[in-house]
Amino acid sequence: MKTLIHKDKEFIEAVIAKCDVCYLGMADTDGTPYVLPMNFGYKDGTVYLHSAQEGRSISILERNPKVCITFSTDHDLVFQHPEVACSYRMRSKSVIGWGTVAYEEDYDKKIEILNILMRQYSDKEFRYSDPAIRNVKIWKVELEEVTCKEFGAPHKK
Ligand SMILES: Cc1cc2nc3c(=O)[nH]c(=O)nc-3n(C[C@H](O)[C@H](O)[C@H](O)COP(=O)(O)OP(=O)(O)OC[C@H]3O[C@@H](n4cnc5c(N)ncnc54)[C@H](O)[C@@H]3O)c2cc1C
Fold first, then answer.
1. Buried b or exposed e, range 95-114, using 16+ CB within 10 angstroms
2. Whose CA is nearest to atom 50 of ligand 1?
3. Whose CA is nearest to atom 3 of ligand 1?
4. pLDDT tens per residue, range 77-132
5. Which structural domains are found in the chain, ordered by start?
6. Is the CB of 82 under 6 A from ligand 1?
7. Rounded distance between C-alpha atoms, residue 43 and residue 17, angstroms
């Protein structure tokens, strides 16, 4: 088994499409890291998130809006010998992306983005109440750099 680096956009987007959570890393100006699990949507190179209007993450992002987002899927524990710890591997695929958080304030665009978020989880059509749209904070992270690795890929025969 080996580790592969993937640069193909379709492969990378397929990994992201399979994830139901991302891990969003922030860095405060004193260097303190802060990583949150978050639900997300993705379209055309941009990750979309939503949150309350206030909180520790929003405060950190006011000081430093740069983030790093990790996605990971297809986790599968495999081994060559059940008694040998170093023969165990976690097959998996993961993507890391970097970007800067910007907020969407336009009412109709917020609905479009919420639809992108919901499509990550469901094929249904959704309606949103007026206060829900006004109160939600919508984050956009255009990915400036992306890397993708596949762990435990079988060697080709
Ligand atoms: C699977 C999953 C998906 C989620 N999806 C979303 C989402 O889409 N949008 C969203 O807004 N939130 C989501 N959350 C919650 C999210 O992780 C944060 O808790 C939330 O966004 C509040 O963050 P904050 O920085 O405003 O926290 P604050 O309310 O300001 O947090 C106060 C303190 O609580 C602690 N804390 C905050 N969050 C967590 C946490 N997750 N785990 C342990 N300790 C914590 C920290 O020490 C922090 O200093 C999700 C959580 C999980 C587990």
1. bbbebebeebeeeeebeebb
2. 38
3. 38
4. 999 899 999 999 999 999 999 999 999 999 999 999 999 999 999 999 999 999 99
5. 2-153 (2.30.110.10)
6. no
7. 10
